[in-house]
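Box 4.2: Ligand-aware structure prediction
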Amino acid sequence: MALKLDISKAYNRVEWVCLDKIMEKLRFGVKWRGFIMQCVSTVTYSIKINGIPRGNIIPSTGVCQGDHLSPYLFLLCAEGLSLLIKSSVASGVLEGVVVCRNGPKLSQLFFAGNSLIFCKASLTKCDALQQALKVYEQASGQQLNRAKTSLFFSRNTPLEIQEEIKQRFGAQVIKQHEKYLGCDFVEASLGNNPSFSWRSIMSAQKLVRGGIRWRVGNGKDIHIWGDKWLPSLTTFRLASPRQFPHQDTRVSELIDHATTSCKFNILDALFLPHEAEMIKGIPISSRLPADKLIWVEASNGKFSVKSAYGLAMRLAAGADQSISSDRSQDQICDECRENDETTDHLLWSCPKAKEVWSFSKLAVSPSHARVNTFFDLLWGVTMKERGDEDVVAKLVCTAWAIWHNRNVTRHGGQQRNGNELIRWVA
Ligand SMILES: [Zn+2]
């Protein structure tokens, strides 16, 4: 079984002793721990009453919310739970779940603010897990929100055991663990400032998108153009040109809901003959169930890590080939057509770049002995001019202008010569 924890992120309740002990266990130096504990414990708070700050409240627990250090200290605290579970597994009190035959046992996954704990679905193991959680709650000052904690059971767990465990945890049971691969994930975006964990998770999204297609139910969730829903073995997308006015038109428009069959005359009118025939062959259930995303890499339509790995390997091999075939054409410098277009070449050693720099009034010239690369130049100017903002700004703007000029030219625009470029930058 798996347990998805909902732990309150109560910064104000972090127990200082616990934090210090965890740092000690993680082998932080005594002096360092002293610094951190000083930062944490010398905080005072005032409260605004009618707009006037009052009081000098001295806390005895908690890390200051809004302080940039706090999230990291909070993570250290959460590490305590992870270590507690690890040691319970090591001593045999808890038992993880085997991922695949001969594979390692998995006991926990902590990512993006979610904590998943895996454990054998037996009453004794559950009591041991409860005990570990209780120790963590008492020591850290954090609290498990039992109402928001979810339990997942494998299909072979007897119902009475599921019920008993549910009672003991006071948690809800989620039956569809498939939900984790649902629409929400597939359509989620990376956001403006993604965490490392979220970026890692999202890097799997492309792979998942590549391996799924729609199975038509009532057609209401599927876009005719753009979505993958054809039972063809290549792209699963329509190649027929779009004739409907709206990009948003759904597959449900093609289904006669009264007779639960395809509208043959519309298909013939809209699509290329072979695609129309293919659509006519899609079985439509008379119950018109909801559309479903299926995993095309497995014959049963169910996602598995093994098949996803196979797909990832195939994509990687394909990507390698396309890069190597493009390389000869794509990587040569547009200006001199002689050298590979590296950052250094483009911004500094290319004859075109040298011309631009010679027009700039910066006290560095391409013949400058110590300047071999653009980064030497940047470093030299930053250090020599002691970070004179004007000079650094001019340098960076000139470099950007070279890059911009290259892009404009590449896309068919008017190229500026060195003199023009420098005047433009100024
Ligand atoms: Zn060049």
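In the box above, the bound molecule is zinc ion. The radius of gyration is 31 Å.
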